[in-house]
Amino acid sequence: MRYIVTTANRFTDIDGYACCIAYADLLRKEGKDAIAVLPGILNESVIPQVKAMPAMYDTTLISTSEDVFVMQDISEIKTFAGFVILDKVVEVFDHHFGYELEWRERIGERAKIEKIGACATLVVEEACNKNLLKDLDMSSQKLLYTAIFANSLNLKSSNTTPRDIHALELLAPLVDFPSNWQEIYFEAMQKNILLDPINSLKNDLKITEINGKEWAIGQLELWNGKAFFDSNEQNLTDFLANLRQEYAFVTVPSILEGKTYVLAKNETTRMVLRKLGFEDKVPLSSLRSRKEWISGINEQKD
């Protein structure tokens, strides 16, 4: 049996990247045959310093009858790669809600879909349960550490849980990052994004169905987002206008400021977002990730 550890088909962010590579490493440490397969492009959250870390993965798969699949940071079936055989999915790890009941019916307790800041936290917990966290390759430990603080907006997102914080505390003695690694990471990601922000949005555009309506949600996580937002409002407006979805917006969490800038496509979208604290031209006074917006929209009833 060979374990194929994979994530979304269209793009791979730091959480999916870390989870796939580290979980495949964990399985190999247990003596199992496992490979990470990342079919989508690596988006700007996988900064050059992260890409430089040793990592074993493929981008294509020649499937065999012995293959089974482990899904990381994804549970929405329509976003799976074409090579994934649903009946051979044996585990699902995710922190995005909406499909947990379906997967629990399919594979029971092997569907680990939980409200948590980062999917990487679930992988850390699995490694701890197997007493193998310290045995993972250091690159896996570093990737998990980075994914947890990155996906929780440096632990400032309201989705951050004590489990995320504890996972970071367990990893901290195992990695040799500089003390300002978080700042280095977010500034490098911002530098990548600002080279071509509209393409960055396209590469990380989340298209999902919420309460029967298709939403398109772009996100740019920046270390300091105010200057970017003020000077690119028209570019962002044009980007949203060209999307086919009626419900669409862009969110720009500004880590250093602790604020979130939001631009909605139209009044239809703004009406929904106002129920979640959105005000035209006024940034939110806290950090809010895309996942939190989706959760809030999902809880609204027509």
From TrEMBL:
InterPro entries reported for this sequence: DHH_sf
Name of the molecule in the record: Uncharacterized protein
The organism of origin for this protein: Candidatus Dojkabacteria bacterium CG_4_10_14_0_2_um_filter_Dojkabacteria_WS6_41_15
